[in-house]
Amino acid sequence: MSKQKNTKLSRADIQSLQALPPGSVVDLQISTPTAPKRVRTNYIGADFPHCLLFQLPSESKWGYLRDILVPEKEVVVRYVLEGDEGKVIALRSEVLKVITHPTNIVFIAMPSSIQSLALRKHKRWTPGIQAKLLIKDDNRKLSTDCMIVDVSLQGCRCVVETTPDFPPLDNGKTVSLSIVTDSETQIKGIIKNSNTANGKRFYGVQFNADTEIVKKLLHRFIVEI
Q: What is the pTM (predicted TM-score) of this model?
């Protein structure tokens, strides 16, 4: 196990970690010499001030990670605190240990700091990706402002205000995301999951777009960490 680093988390940082319920889904990004590898996993809990614990999928699903998820490997963890918190959290740290028996668990060193971005309407949404969510409904074209709070080459997670003018979207619904950078870019996708919290609706969207187009989004990722 690598040497434990001292952590100087603020009280607000600790509260953000304590507010994440065990079992919550997080995004785990693992650095590699070529390109970062990302996997969705579940948060187990924390041993303050030593480490954070995460559950990994079964070996049949994550076997390819065995060679790269090793002690001292740098990782980035991202998650969304919904409900009253309404913010995106990102932290950079390193792997302490991985065990496979009796279950697959990765121990990650407690970070020295975390980054957060408030999602409340009265707060600034930058450096997140502001966009419009477009759909066709009964031969009508509807749109609403949204914010992309998490993005990868495969898809993204976005949040919209719940309003009577824009209906909730079911899984399997085809949508387009319109993003204005140097020019307007539209990316098509499919709703894969959704949930509502604190007057906002969160959608998981699977992209159906050219990889180079999606890379333009990654240059404006929610947390530059």
A: 0.55
Per-residue confidence band for 96, with pLDDT thresholds at 50, 70 and 90? very high
Number of helices (H), then strands (E), belonging to the chain: the values are: 3, 13
**How distant, in Å, are the alpha carbons of 4, 123, 124, 159, 180 from that of 203?**
37, 20, 20, 6, 20
pLDDT digits (tens, 9 = 90+) for 142-170: 999 888 877 777 888 888 988 888 888 99
* Contacts of 169-174 spanning 24+ positions with Cβ under 8 A: 169/135, 169/194, 169/203, 170/194, 173/135, 174/135, 174/136
List beta partners, residue 27: 40, 78
Which residues face 163 on adjacent strands?
166
Helix ranges, 121-218 (H)? 211-218
pLDDT for the residue 140:
84
Domains of the chain: 11-118 (2.30.110.10), 129-218 (2.40.10.220)
92, 225 Cβ separation under 8 angstroms: yes
Quick one: pLDDT at residue 127?
Answer: 38
